[in-house]
Input
Amino acid sequence: MLLPLLLLPWAWGALAASPPVPPGSLTLRLLKTNVFHNASSSNMEGMALLGDLETHFMDCSTCRIRFLQPWAQQGLTPRQWQDLETMFHGYLSKFIFLMNKVVKDEGEHYPFVTQFSLGCELHLNGTSRQFYDAAMNGEDFISFNVDLGTWVAQRGDKLALSIRDLLNQDKSTSATTQFLLRTTCVSELQSFVQYGKESLARQERPVAVVFARAPPPAGTPAPLLLVCRVTGFYPRPIRVAWLQDGEEVGPGWRLNSSGILPNADLTYQLRSSLAVGPGDGHSYACRVEHSSLGGQSLLIPWGATGTSDQENPEPEGAAPA
Output
């Protein structure tokens, strides 16, 4: 089943940072956020992601699972999905009760937010990695050691230690968590890779432009900043490099990057900048490599520096290299 990991009574988990996914790997990740306004008011949202595709969503104003991909309902019958919703509603009620009790016993205060990130990662060589990380109010709180089947506090305060001890007393839930992460999650990941293979294979070509930030006033020795803006690409992995007179510029203080950021249309964007000396006489180009380009790359030139005194968002040309 897809979401049994969400059905554990203690599954308040976290949106904690996970290690980078190795190239060629794929992850099934479940994210859930609970906002506790006071002892009698709370709300929850949860979602499932296959790689970076949102596949399922639930909020407990209705506690109905929404299918965000055309193939997301496959794998379970309508009755099984309905039973899953009913079970989740019951476990959520228990979770809210337990959280309110622990917070009251430990003298904590409202409002507060709990988050979790849990799931599994499958590698090309057939090995897998499982994870379950929890946070409270945006800070690492507790995690589950899948190999040992034990909960580990991520901070030393009384609340985290108390919950760690409570969880470790429940051997049955720990064993169930191990099984769900090691077996159920990996099985569902393999299944959804088959159902969603067309969505996962989607390729969107990047669009790239090069422009210069307005140069400093005459006589000022500050460098000129060239910016390469790349957007509209999918999947996420991409490589952007700067060339000076045809040679790649190595790492250093001259280079800066925004990192890969999401767009609203489920594609990605990136900005890479290069500091150059005004009028230094060199030629520069931005090179973009992406799987959608069929083994080629985009090469967007910037002629001689210092030829423009304002941002130019349009490229003079982007050619395959």
User: Anything to note?
Assistant: The chain has two domains: 4-200, 207-320. Residues 4-200 form a domain with the Murine Class I Major Histocompatibility Complex, H2-DB; Chain A, domain 1 fold (CATH 3.30.500.10). Confidence is low (pLDDT under 50) at residues 1-21, 304-319.
